[in-house]
Amino acid sequence: MREIDVGEIGDAVARLAGEVAYRLGDAEKTALEGARGREESEPGRVALEEITENAVCAAKGVRPICQDTGLGVVFMDIGQDVHLTGGSLEDAVSDGLRRAVKESFLRASVCDSFTRANTGDGVPAILHTRIVTGDKIKVIFDAKGGGSENCSRLSMLTPADGREGVKAFAVETVEKAGAKSCPPLVVGIGVGGNFETCALLAKRALVRDLGEPNSDQGLASLEKEILEAANATGVGPSGLGGRVTVLAVHVEAAPCHIASLPVAVNLDCHAHRHGEVVL
Amino acid sequence: MNGEVVHVETPFTEDVAGAFMIGERVLVSGTLWVARDAAHMRMIETLERGKDLPFPSVGAVMFYMGPSPARPGEAIGAAGPTTAARMDRFVRPLLECGVRGMIGKGERSDEVRKLCADFCAVYLAATGGAGALYGERIKAAEVVAYEDLGPEALRKIEVEDFPAVVAIDASGRDLYGKSREKWGPSR
Question: What is the mean pLDDT of residues B95-107?
């Protein structure tokens, strides 16, 4: 049994949240550069140039990539041989995020759903834990913007809708989202499980290394087909028309009920901000 | 879209607003009034109570935005546009008060297109997710109302060469629809 103080987890959350807000990942930068190279539309290229210039501005460490520094989503894979000490895990995660919001000048973007009163400190975070084998803890931080989240959708398809149904729903989601979701997008798709699992699979798909195909060949080819179809919609960078609407499609799947085919499509903007650490 | 960039100053007169053409790239300088969802709800309540808006609205240009906090010595943090469509339902009463320009990101409703034509107003699209770049073009910022809303408070900002593209002009033409026709699959 290994002991880990929850304070260490809070520190990890604070560090990741502060970092991802200002620094776009290398894979994301490479994907945007590639997009600039192949975009045929002039307004699309101008948008991609502004997005690239923006990343340079943000890397100075004065202003985050986007004013929407996101809702803090934390995934934790907790080894079953770990004993957590030092207090409440949830409080530690919230404390870490609260510290990052204050010290890294992130926007407090959380409010009461009905009164709309801002909580003022960017918390609570959304915490998803999973118990795995081993004696380590993996902490993944995802800074999830609201604009692209608002354009995400879930549908309980029927078994006969099949693979084509999943594909059509995903492409329709990208098309309906248009400029509102800040394309070029990263598209996370969860298929199967039930109502809540497909949504969680979709979110998990988003934090996979950008453009890394699913290890299952069938799912990898579905990712490729959806990517091509989504880029044929013509939405383009910033929705101003063009060939690059989506940078990557990640699909995760699980078995489902014989009556169902749940599918969730979680969109993320080009400011695709996530990071992870293993403790 | 032509390659020329047009410099414009706020507030917008009817002549200025009427001269914009969709697809035109503009660099905006002057005062912008910053409001997003919560501030709009407050402004509409104010108008429904028969009171005036908390800013000089004739010719005003609204910017749909909620900034991240300013570091010491900076005017503002990151300050890019938020989704304009969420503000569609508030457009008519604001245009009735003389507002003539809106800056945000993304498609608007058909109703907003018609309102732009009826009131000789324009909608400019800024690049979503470019908040650091936009923040650098803001020279001054102050909260003018609804301070309790935090990042959603109504703000007055002074901008210099703020880049945008004309998305709906005063004839009610829409750039997004046109772009989709041009680049989307031929039906």
Answer: 98
- Nearest Cα to Cα of residue B140 among B124, B125, B160: B160
Structural domain count, chain A: 2
Distance to chain A for B54, nearest Cα, Å: 20
Task: Please indicate, yes or no, if residue A38 is contained in any of the structural domains.
Answer: no
Residue A118 is inside which H or E element, if any?
none
A174-207 in b/e form (b: 16+ CB < 10 A) is: bbebbbbbbbbbbbbbbbbbeeebbbbbbbbbbb
| pTM assigned to the model | 0.96
ipTM value, please give it.
Answer: 0.95
Pairing of strands B154-168, A153-157: unpaired
Residue in chain B closest to A118 (alpha carbons) equals B149
Give how far Cα A75 sits from Cα of A130, A134, B179, Å.
8, 17, 38
Over pLDDT 90: what percentage of chain B?
96
- H/E segment holding residue A125: none
Determine, yes or no, domain membership for A235. yes
Which pair of tokens denotes residue A155?
A: 């549908």
Is there a single domain that holds both residue A123 and residue A157? no
Q: What residue in A sits closest to B39 (Cα-Cα)?
A: A116
| Same domain, residue pair A126 and A152 | no
φ/ψ of A57, rounded to 5, equals: -60, -45
* Cross-chain CB nearest to B132 (options A57, A108, A242): A57
Summarised one tens digit per residue, pLDDT across range A27-73 is 999 999 999 999 999 999 999 999 999 999 999 999 999 999 999 99
Q: A96, A10 in Cβ contact below 8 A? A: yes
Does the B5-182 domain belong in CATH 3.30.70.360? Answer: no
Instruction: Name the helix (H) or strand (E) containing A262.
Output: strand A261-268
Its domain, for residue A230, covers 146-272
Q: Does A253 fall in a domain?
A: yes
Query: Is residue A8 included in any domain, yes or no?
Result: yes
- Overall size of chain B counted in residues: 187
Question: Which among B66, B165, B176 is the nearest to A67, CB-wise?
Answer: B66
Boundary residue ending a domain (A144, A167, A197) = A144
Same domain, A266 and A221: yes
Q: Of B137, B176, B175, nearest to B158 (Cα)?
A: B137
